[in-house]
TrEMBL record, chain A:
Keyword Ligase carried by entry: no
InterPro entries, per the entry: Aur1/Ipt1, PAP2/HPO, PAP2/HPO_sf
Keywords: Membrane, Transmembrane, Transmembrane helix
Protein name per the record: Phosphoesterase PA-phosphatase-related protein
Highest taxon, organism lineage: Archaea
One cellular component term from this protein's GO annotations in UniProt: membrane
Lineage per the UniProt record: Archaea, Methanobacteriati, Methanobacteriota, Stenosarchaea group, Halobacteria
Ranges that cross the membrane: 6-24, 44-61, 106-125, 137-156, 216-236
Alphabetized PANTHER family for the sequence: AT30094P, SPHINGOSINE-1-PHOSPHATE PHOSPHOHYDROLASE
Keyword Membrane: yes
Phosphatidic acid phosphatase type 2/haloperoxidase domain segment(s): 134-257
UniProtKB/TrEMBL annotation, chain B:
Protein name: Extracellular solute-binding protein family 5
PANTHER family the UniProt entry points to: OLIGOPEPTIDE-BINDING PROTEIN APPA (PTHR30290:SF9), PERIPLASMIC BINDING COMPONENT OF ABC TRANSPORTER (PTHR30290)
Alphabetic keyword roster: Signal, Transport
One Pfam family from the record: SBP_bac_5
GO molecular function list: peptide transmembrane transporter activity
Gene3D superfamilies: Dipeptide-binding Protein, Domain 3, Periplasmic binding protein-like II
Gene Ontology annotations of biological process type: peptide transport
Ranges of residues in domain Solute-binding protein family: 243-562
Signal peptide coordinates: none
SUPFAM superfamilies per UniProt: Periplasmic binding protein-like II (SSF53850)
């Protein structure tokens, strides 16, 4: 079943990507990329390496994390439920077979497309800074998200009010997707919503680059908003997770600006460390 | 004392009373309770029962919060650490009412496991629990009735309903599904494969099986169906059938002593012989997993009621064991159903476990409870073949198993391999059977999935007699759950009939007592409503005025805002 779901995903995204490259990127940039891709790849290599390492750690840690989490995590399902109650059921008011189908495909296909497309699009820009910023922001999302997942043990609304969200719940209507989601996540990892944070990250970058990709900007914003809503509509995330996802996105975009391009990573760390030491009085005293 | 004295003094002065209220404001406040249960992914019905109770408790002025724990953590919280107030869960129950002895006997109050997780202590109930264990024939039936009625009065836990058991099986690949109960080893032995079929493919839901194959790790076991394929017991029981010889060739009761003859030449999966010493070891070990290393015994968190009946166990020869029980033979024979462990593997597990990460049981955590026991070495009809954590467990036929001998008329493993794949949910498991990628679902389908199951040609529903039940458990160690009036009131805030219709889609039977049909006394039969603790309302909705009046009659008080106030 996993294989079927994956093939479908690859086919859908595989169709969407070339179409959107033609629509949003244009032939000129592609031609130039063809002659410059080696140098660009070289400039961006460290960033790509960092992202790959983060993804690898993430892949490994998401399987191990639940056990660590069991030891040191905080159980927050009750707190989330006490704070927002049945807020997400508001979205049930727009539930129809059509909206359910729309949000389900947004959650699976739309989301994957949304985070893959900008990687390709920004690579076609002669200045690799935006490309590197995007990858850095992705890496930060994963790292911070993983740390939060370890500390926060919380189940999503579908696990607390299964009957109330049954009509729209992703897995009720498309049980086969569970084979995919269980590969990438455990059901206690809901805070924050990485679907929301990565989508919001993409939308923010789309806003920053809207003079370069004017047509992409509204599409990215619409898709990102749909993804955020879909997580609640489908009963997967609490409103709190979505808000946290947006804050995480904002943080990652800001951090990516500070980290990328102005210094080499090693320099930055050195400078930071010095400043940090200056600020700590007991380090001086002990000397 | 001091507080009482102060109370007496201040009661004479209004001014001082105000001072006292400032000093002791926290003494009496709104009752706040936590309901612990598992998420919908683990049990869709449990969380819905919990939310039904939550709603009705709120309605009568009680502050409620929900505590969701994974399967493993739920068991550790409730069974091991006793860190809960009200729990909603699925109790394994039993076909013999003697399981209640284990569940409620007061001497088990401080132990971890299925033995008295409720911390219930009541002299009267103790007497009933013990009486039915020694009585025989008609006298036992009377004793059981008295016990069940006394328990229903006290409501140490609230039995809610018995869910039906339906599984999906492929009849074009195997025949003989109806012979064995699928919650026991019998369900997977003696099946008749179609020509060319040599693998039994089970669609399972619970990944815990791939992490841990320890037959006494309560946090990982439900009914031990699969571990019973890996381990033999002296006797076996096919569902609600009689207790019959298994690893024991025969036995003879003489008063309260049973002389057991083991089958000749049985071996564990590692080639070591199964001897009377292993049997003797098993009973001693389950009674004290520290083997005397602790000052007081550390009984296993499973099978407590069964092995507790055993007074002495002595191996006479290599093939003969003598077991004396404190109970009637009918109850004592249940002790023969525990898995026989190879002494040469488990003796070393009597050591204490230190360090975080594992379970911690009150009676002292030994390696025996904490080990994941992989690979499991038993003497059962199947042996461990391999596993992929979270995804698959493979069992291989144990060719030397006694059931395969000519002349032994017991169901044997008929396939080379039994492959258990873990699927994410009940509907996907049912789907893979329908698609032909599995031969049966090993666990009963969830109530919500039953009506949607497709049964194309070659696929059938296999119905089995149920005995597990859903219940609300109270931690009666703490007020106000120590008060039977309070427990009875909470029992009356659950509409069992409505739950069965709404949450179980009619695929369950509401109950007032947690035993199988033939043991239910007339006084506790269900006729449309609970005979002991009828619901205070209708259609799932509580009648707030009636319920509040009932709380007040029971000695509880409400404040001006309609909040139930209790000294906690």
């Amino acid at each position: 079943m996993l294989a079927e779901v994956l093939i479908q995903l690859v086919v859908v995204v595989g169709i969407l990507l070339p179409v959107s490259i033609a629509l949003f990127v244009g032939r000129e940039r592609l031609v130039r990329t063809r002659s410059e891709w080696r140098t660009r790849l070289k400039t961006a290599a460290p960033t790509i390496a960092v992202l790959l390492v983060v993804l690898l750690i993430n892949r490994f840690a998401r399987q191990r994390a639940p056990r660590l989490s069991r030891e040191i995590g905080f159980h927050l399902t009750a707190s989330f439920y006490n704070i927002e109650g049945e807020f997400i059921l508001l979205f049930q008011s727009i539930a129809t077979p059509e909206t359910t189908a729309y949000f389900s495909s947004i959650y699976v296909y739309g989301y994957v497309f949304l985070i893959v497309f900008p990687v390709l699009a920004y690579f076609t820009l002669p200045d690799t800074r935006m490309f590197r910023r995007l990858l850095t922001a992705y890496a930060l999302n994963y790292v911070i998200g993983l740390v939060l997942y370890i500390f926060v043990i919380a189940y999503g609304p579908r696990n607390v009010m299964p009957a109330d969200v049954a009509a729209t719940m992703l897995f009720e209507n498309n049980p086969q997707y569970q084979y995919l989601t269980r590969e990438v996540n455990s059901n206690t990892n809901v805070f924050p919503s990485l679907h929301t944070s990565l989508s919001a990250t993409v939308a923010t970058f789309a806003a920053i680059t809207r003079s370069t990709f004017p047509k992409w900007f509204p599409v990215a914003v619409a898709l990102a908003a749909s993804v955020a809503i879909s997580t609640m509509f489908l009963g997967i995330h609490w409103g709190i997770d979505v808000v946290a996802g947006m804050l995480l996105a904002a943080l990652c975009v800001v951090l990516s600006d500070r980290l990328v391009g102005r210094w080499a990573v090693s320099e930055l760390l050195g400078e930071r460390l010095e400043r940090f030491e200056d600020r700590i009085p007991w380090l001086e005293r002990s000397e | 004392m001091l507080a009482t004295a102060a109370g007496l003094t201040v009661s004479s002065s209004g001014c001082l009373r105000r001072v006292r209220n400032i000093v002791r404001t926290d003494d009496i406040q709104q009752l706040s309770v936590t309901i612990t249960t598992v998420p919908a992914d683990a049990d869709r019905q449990a969380i819905r029962i919990a939310r039904h109770l939550e709603e009705n408790l709120r309605a009568v002025g009680i502050d409620v919060s929900l505590d969701l724990r994974s399967d493993i953590e739920f068991r550790r919280a409730v069974l091991y650490d006793h860190e809960f107030e009200i729990c909603v869960g699925h109790h394994p129950g039993g076909t013999d009412p003697d399981f209640l002895y284990e569940a409620l006997y007061s001497r088990y109050i401080d132990e971890s496991g299925w033995q008295n997780p409720f911390g219930f202590t009541d002299r009267n109930i103790d007497t009933h629990l013990v009486a039915q264990r020694t009585a025989e024939g008609d006298a036992r039936r009377k004793a059981v009735t008295a016990m069940l009625e006394a328990i229903a009065t006290e409501q140490p836990f609230v039995p809610l309903c018995v869910p039906e058991e339906h599984r999906v099986v492929r009849t074009d690949r195997f025949d003989g599904w109806d012979e064995g109960h699928p919650a026991t080893r019998h369900g997977y032995l003696g099946l008749e494969p179609a020509a060319g079929v040599d693998t039994l493919r089970l669609a399972h839901l619970d990944g815990r099986l791939t992490e841990n194959c320890n037959p006494i790790a309560t946090d990982y076991r439900d009914r031990g169906t699969i571990t019973d394929l890996l381990y033999d017991s002296l006797a076996t029981k096919n569902g609600d059938g009689p207790i019959e010889p298994w690893l024991a060739e025969s036995w003879a009761w003489n008063d309260r002593t049973v002389d057991i003859t083991l089958r000749d030449g049985c071996e564990f999966h590692d080639g070591e012989p199964v001897t009377a010493d292993d049997v003797e070891f098993t009973y001693r070990f389950l009674q004290d997993t520290s083997l005397g290393n602790h000052g007081t015994p550390s009984p296993a968190p499973l099978y407590r009621g069964q092995v507790d009946a055993v007074e002495s166990v002595e191996s006479r020869t290599d093939h003969r064991v003598e077991l004396s029980v404190e109970t009637s033979p009918a109850v004592g024979a249940r002790a023969l159903l525990v898995p026989i462990l190879p002494a040469h593997h488990w003796r070393d597990r009597a050591v204490d476990v230190v360090g975080p990460g594992g379970p911690s049981v009150a009676q002292g955590t030994t390696e025996a409870v904490a080990t994941n026991n992989i690979p499991p070495i038993g003497s059962g009809p199947f042996q461990f073949g391999g596993r992929t954590e979270g995804a698959q467990l493979v069992l291989e036929r144990f060719d030397d198993h006694f059931t395969r001998r000519p002349g032994v008329d017991l169901p044997a493993p008929t396939v080379d391999e039994c492959r258990i794949d873990i699927h994410p949910s009940g509907d996907t498991a049912a789907q893979v059977v329908a698609n032909g990628d599995a031969d049966a679902t090993s666990l009963p389908l969830g109530a919500a999935d039953i009506d949607g199951v497709e049964t194309p040609a070659g696929v059938a529903m296999r119905d089995a007699s149920p005995w597990t039940f859903y219940c609300l458990g109270f931690n009666t160690r703490d007020a106000p759950f120590s008060n039977y009036r309070f427990r009875r009131l909470l029992a009356q805030l659950v509409d069992k009939e409505w739950l069965v219709d709404e949450v179980f889609h009619g695929h369950a039977r509401p109950i007032a007592t947690p035993v199988t049909d033939d043991w239910v006394p007339e006084s506790l039969e269900w006729h449309g409503t609970d005979p002991e603790t009828p619901f205070l309302g209708s259609e799932g909705e509580v009648d707030v005025d009636a319920a509040k009046a009932a709380f007040e009659t029971a000695g509880f008080r409400y404040d001006d805002y309609g909040r139930l106030r209790v000294r906690q």
